[in-house]
Amino acid sequence: MVMIMNKRLLLSVLLAFCLLANRLSAQEVTPPVRPAPTETLTAPGISAEVYFSQLQQGTFGIIRLTGSITEARALFLNRQYPFFERPGDGWYAFVIAAIDARPRDYPLALMIRDTAGTDSTLNKVVTITNANFTNQNFNLSPDRVYLTEPEVERLEFARLNVLISPVRPERLWDTWQMPMEAPLISGFGQYRIFNQNIQTRHTGVDHEAPVGTPVAAIGRGEVVYAGRLDIRGNYVLIDHGYGIYSGYAHFSQLNVQRGQTVEKGQIIGLTGNTGRSSGPHLHWEVAINGEWVDSIEFLAAWLPS
Ligand SMILES: [Zn+2]
Predict the structure, then answer these.
(1) Residue 205 alpha carbon to ligand 1 centre in Å
(2) N or C terminus: fewer CB in 10 A for the chain?
């Protein structure tokens, strides 16, 4: 009994301290060690290390270039991916297997210009594999049924696309942490049906949490949106640099403003049930170069540091 009382007291003191410090020490993510490349492509004076053999729908892969390079980009699935220079290390790009890409082989092209002005192209075939996303049904209360209209969905994704497309050529984050410690109730990529009407895709993951639970930024970055969206409700979007964004939805309270720099673990808002939500929870999501990726896999992945 005393033990339980002490534990409870300790937890309350810790929570009070975290709230006072405006920081939340949710689960830290230990950065994985750099893996060995799976393949190396070469052109005169240039080497391209590929850190994946195939890509599952909704995941990303890393490519590293070394040599005397002035400019480089990757072309994959009708998107252009910039390479970022990390002095003394090399040039890096993240290529994405979109959540809705059909599982098959696709060409990947690396366009590289060296310091002498010579252009090289390196080619590779990348297989996208099926993630076997499952289905999930939801019922919304009558006052929220308008949120199942395709036009509401289309407008929100169009607005988000504008927000998650700019690529900042610098890295703002250091390491990552989970936004909160709470049970996961829904995974990335699911096909979702609301009130037997609209079918959509789940761009993030959901944690079950009562209204008012503090939510932390997963890493350092700049807030590029803090306000109301139809589907995501009260929403915070953070730009971490290198084209990486994290978004947090359905808040009851926002603690940050657009333009503000936030630190990893900083409390950015409190969980709620706003927007297209059928109960209090946190939805959080990660986008890279304008595509949504599995946020849990993202936190566990190796990134250049
Ligand atoms: Zn969700």
Answers:
(1) 5
(2) N
